[in-house]
Amino acid sequence: MALRAVEKRSLADGVFEQLTTEIVSCRYAPGEAIPSERDLSVVFSVNRHVVREAVKRLQQVGLLSVVQGGRTKVLDFRETAGLDLLTIVAEHAEAVEGLMGLLAGVLEMRAGIGADVARLCAQRAGGDVRGELLEISERLAVLGEGAELEGAELLALDQRFWQRVLDGAGNLAYQLAFNSLIRAVHAQHGLSVAWLEQELKRGDYRRPIAAAIAAGDSERAATAARLALAPPERGPLLVQSREPARGRR
């Protein structure tokens, strides 16, 4: 994709988005130098301060590095970036098709973390968390079985379910990792509603997870979470929702 003049109101965001897409899609290879500030300012039709701000943000997320001589080179983001890149790519990449490989990896990782979080929650959660999880799982079932799914409400309720599981698990590292994963898979609203609809029905609307946690059965909780969250092995991983996008949460 050729770089082009930035038309968005936030000019630095526009430059950042385009360069992020170019780097993550490997159109700029690791070790390759990006064009100079002056050249980029001409391509994007912005001043050099805007380019400098965008490049600084790209350095902060582990995509670029300023090397000797003042040249700015592309880093191998697989070795230098962190989980925050998941959200950035999901929110800013222009072609949804280009996200599928990344989102597939996110969902696989989410299943592994979710299983262990459910296991810890079954071991550690207090009665208030156990009771609320049972209540939320029933509300998800009612909402999911309705004739008309309300996508934003569905996403919010499911995120509340997992937040309470994380509260019960009491592991801050898992909380931070899960925050990044949730933001990444929910960034494209039309996609996230569709896969969540399918996932909830396949996993009986979170009821088995909540029941196992309420019973204090850690292994059953982990198994139920792993089965519920595992991406389907066949067919399209993510499909567009029948519901029009309503904006990111």
What does this structure look like?
- By secondary structure, the chain is an all-alpha fold.
- The protein folds into two domains: 11-81, Arc Repressor Mutant, subunit A, CATH 1.10.10.10; 99-229, Four Helix Bundle (Hemerythrin (Met), subunit A) (Up-down Bundle).
- 64% of the residues lie in helices and 2% in strands.
- It has twelve helices and two strands; from the N terminus they run H-H-H-E-E-H-H-H-H-H-H-H-H-H.
- The chain has helices spanning 11-24, 37-44, 48-60, 77-80, 84-92, 100-124, 127-145, 151-169, 172-186, 189-202, 207-214, 218-229; strands spanning 64-66, 72-74.
- The protein has a two-stranded antiparallel sheet with strand order 1-2.
- Helix 1 crosses helix 3 (48-60) and helix 5 runs parallel beside helix 9 (172-186).
- The longest helix has 25 residues, at 100-124.
- The chain is elongated and about 65 Å long.
